[in-house]
Write a structure and sequence with these properties.
The chain is mainly α. The protein contains three helices and no strands.
């Protein structure tokens, strides 16, 4: 075996290890994004519940104001306005909840895609390394996996 072949093999191994490391980093980032999006959805759900409770409270105020309409017309109008505002808040928060839910779904799809790509790339690297080793007459030697290559970093 020549010195050039060893250098080429080492460069290829290093390149493949770097690719594996970059993919691992991308997966970690995608997981972080999914967790962040899930946390945002939970927060949004709580906000919707809080807004719903506020809306229900405002509706009760409206009903009380209707009973005392003659004495408190201004109170009745305030309660109606409060109900409209609460309903608007509920609707806006529901829209945000839907957006965040779609974000979680997209992040999950991205994560699945990253994982599939990483697995395909790992198989490709192992295959390319086997071809390189076979080309240099090392077909009987152990072909390291992408995890073994990454551990050499």
């Amino acid at each position: 075996m020549s010195v050039i072949g060893d250098r080429g093999t080492k460069k290829l191994e290093k390149l493949m290890a770097q690719e594996a490391k970059a993919e691992k980093k991308n997966i970690a980032h995608a997981l972080k994004d999914v967790k962040k999006a899930e946390k945002a959805v939970k927060k949004s759900v709580k906000a919707v519940e809080k807004a719903q409770k506020g809306r229900e409270k405002t509706v009760k105020k409206e009903q009380s104001a209707e009973k005392a309409l003659i004495k408190a017309k201004h109170k009745h109008a305030d309660a109606l306005e409060g109900e409209v505002n609460a309903e608007t808040t509920v609707n806006l928060r529901r829209e945000k909840e839907g957006e965040r839910d779609r974000g979680v779904q997209q992040a999950q799809q991205d994560l699945d895609s990253f994982q599939s790509t990483m697995e395909a790339n790992a198989r490709d690297r192992v295959s390319r390394l086997a071809e390189v080793l076979a080309h240099f007459g090392q077909e009987d030697e152990h072909v390291p996996s992408s995890a073994e290559l990454a551990s050499r970093l």
